[in-house]
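Reviewers asked in the last cycle whether our approach scales beyond single polypeptides. To address this, we selected a multi-component target totalling 804 residues and predicted its structure end to end. The input consisted of the following lines:
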Amino acid sequence: MFVLDVDFFDYEDEEDDERGKFTMKFAHLIWCNLRRKKLRTSLTLLSIVVAFILFGFLSAIQQALVGGVALAGTDRLIVREKVSIINLLPLSYEARIERIPGVDFATHQTWFGGIYQEPRNFFMQNPVEPEKFLKIHPEIILPPDQEKAWLATRTGAVVGRRTADRFGWKIGDRVPLKSPIWSDRRSWEFDIVGIYDGRDKGTDTTPMFFRYDYFDESREWGKGQIGWYTIRIKDPSQAAEVAKRVDAEFENSPAETRTEPEGAFIQGWASQIGNIVLIVAAILGMVFFTILLVTGNTMAQAVRERTGELGVLKAIGFTNGQVVALVLAESCLLTVLGGVIGLGLARAITSVVAQNLAGLLPLFFLPTRALFIGLGFSIALGLITGIFPALMAMRLRVADALRRM
Amino acid sequence: MAGPLNWFSQIASITRFGLLSLPQRRGAVAATVIGIAGVVAVLVGVLSIAAGFRYAMTVSGSPDGAVVLRSGANSEMVSGLGRNETRVIADDPRVARNTGGPLASAELFVIIDLPKRSTGLDANVPLRGVEPAAFQVRDHMKIIAGRPFDWGKDEVIVGSGAAQEFAGLEVGSKIKVGRYEWPVVGLFSANGSAAESEIWTDAKVLQDAFNRGDSFQSVYVRLNSPGAFQEFKDALTSNPQLNVQVIRQAEYYAEQSETMTRLITTLGFWIAFLMALGAIFGALNTMYSAVAARTREIATLRALGFGSWAVVVALMLESLLLALAGGVIGGGLAYFALNNFHTSTMNFQSFSQVTFAFRVTLKLLVQGMMWAAVIGLIGGFFPAIRAARLPIASALREL
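The resulting structure, written as structure tokens, was:
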């Protein structure tokens, strides 16, 4: 049987300033209802928690795939060889690109494909022109003294925080890498002179960058050729026109180019693995809603069992609106509680998984935006699962309900 | 009176009661079954991606086949071999021969941009230049439409997987390679292996188009016997003229698939684990409410002399049956929706696309059923214990 405070019903006599007191009593009633079947409540809560952990996972996967696109510089274009990304472009293109109207300046990178100890320790390493590179990538935050050291050290390399942490590298360390692409037997020595951070949370801090002059001198073939150019344009709204001009410049030359905004380039790259990961995300989404269905059923059942009590409440003067509010508040409290716990755990779990995936999906993390969306979902879930039992309670005729007791 | 037969008949009759009362609890029962079906479908579905990818990669290797790469290269993409090296390799006495000479194909492996049908976005499609022996060093190579390309001509044949996944690769169409346009003259299949993701042409033609001089990236050979591998490997690696590594074809492909498989199984495991947790809570809820609804009935049985262990076993059996039903539905769903679903992804080692089909194997289905059984047993255990411990007198009095 359920127990009510007697002075719960005093509220009729008082006015607005007593509203707070009423709400508190109301809360007490909801709390008692949830505690009545502790086991069922906690099991339901746990399923909701799991659903939201899964939601967090889903968001992290999505972030890993499309996050890079959102962070791409709108004022940057990528120029690569037209036939295949593996074909190189001549270094002489840099000066020619910089003469094209609309181009601020251009710099280049090349895929080094180095192996640290063993292939599974994969991370990206590219030779760059340090000054221009840092200028075109303001999202890479390198302390000024480390930048100076990089400019002064020919074998110097700067590495992102994630990779530095992954291998425990510190400034001053000397790191050997093998590069099957650029030289047969010998290993390349790099001095870590800086560790950079990302300006935004989504900035990929797994790559290592080192100096092109060191690279070009030491490689066994391909001297004077680079992988791709990054261009900064003067006016982002002119991106398409500038891209066309660049490609026209090199048309019918031995190395034709293909120029596109950085965002499109990253999107294209992500879509190459994307297919599968999107399938996984779709499955996950389906499952999220299955769990919600299951939970909704349990909660509806919990309310159905209390039909009689709701009848009593109505008999002693609760309005329809108040009964509906009572039921909805109960379901929302449960789902929001579950949502908050689930999202919190998701945050912790995704960071563990991210360690396992380091190098493969560098942008795998749970963004703050997703936390808010998840919270919104949890409220929506509470309303949806609560609304049918609530309507049932509202339509309930007191006489019928009391007979069922 | 307490013989084993009696015990079993007790279990049977309680279980029967439980099953007969299922329709009265259909909401909760359906929720449990759907929940477990979801777990199994997702588990099997995700793992079938990894299984399909691994299959495509490993079916490629024949037991007497070997791949020779430059030492230190972890994929063909970053390997490089000169003409004199490939000649030394082909002349090794362990390499099988037929009337045309040694069964060794020096090959060139590049990627070109072609749009994916599904997204319309460009993807890195592998383009392989081969020598005549290429069709003998691999198993199951078959031209299924059109004709083989002519040696020395700018023509290509396309793997069936690539033709399905990327636009503009039908027989009779032309692909653009730089300033040249090469006609597609044939379509080939290779028993679902990774080769089906590729476009093939004459190695010499490809060398010219990509300014590669007279260099290659790998040599595929067929050996006299699978047992000759070690000798072959030792001979090449100790040869001072060469700087190479020798890998069995099967091992080479397994290595190539490792990264992707690890990615999928890591994600898949975590997802399935979380879902299983959710399903266990759902099953617990159902069984607890089943016990609560039947408090009086169970107490009556106990009063009549049914043993508490019979009650426990019967309730767990009921839960197990529900879970297995969910498992069958989930497994079936995964099988019919996903088995043989064709897609493509990036092979991280060579940055090129691999097309493959999902494989819902018997092993995965069994694995899914085992997960379902575990969920069912855990979900039934605690409620069953509670039922067995009910104080009979007060339970009988309960409404």
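The two ends of chain A are 10 Å apart (CA to CA). We regard this as preliminary and will revisit it once experimental data from Aim 1 are available.
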